[in-house]
Amino acid sequence: MSKPFDLEAEVRDLAARRDIHDALCRYMRGQDRLDPVLHRSAFHDDAYVDCGLMQGTADEFVAFAQGFLADMAGSQHIIGQVQLDVRGDEASGEVYFYAWHRHQEDGQPKDLVVAGRYVDEYGCRNGEWRIVKRREMIDWARSDVAADDFLAANPILPRGGRRGEDFSQTRNWPL
Length: 175
Known about the structure:
Layout: H1 7-32, H2 36-40, E1 43-50, E2 55-57, H3 58-70, E3 74-87, E4 90-105, E5 108-125, E6 128-145, H4 149-153, H5 167-170
Parallel strand pairs: 1-6
Antiparallel strand pairs: 1-2, 3-4, 4-5, 5-6
């Protein structure tokens, strides 16, 4: 015998999934745009993060990640499939990611691509879903000599910016 449909529970579950996904997007965008306030907003105050290169509080992690990424010419973090288990005001999840980083190695531009997963615990406190615990798992990575022939041949193409200078942040439309 199947359970009766509970519309209220279904709406709460869907809203939780939407809000957790929003926290995931704030996390990624905060990293790529070098926006520490946005980045930090994905975490509850007592959150714990283990990214392999450091383990600590959300504040420690955001400071570390922002400094690490600031030394690079650019980055782009992409969310893949997201599997969530929502249980009232708690949830757990696994989030696949693909991340590109432009860095310098021996004076030569290189592209570091990392793919992996975030294994997370989430909580809803005061009506806000955020990350409570996160462990980053790396499944594969590679570093290659940068090949930007297309961009070099098309210098008028709009490029992304950081630290508040990206078009998505300024919305500086031509008149």
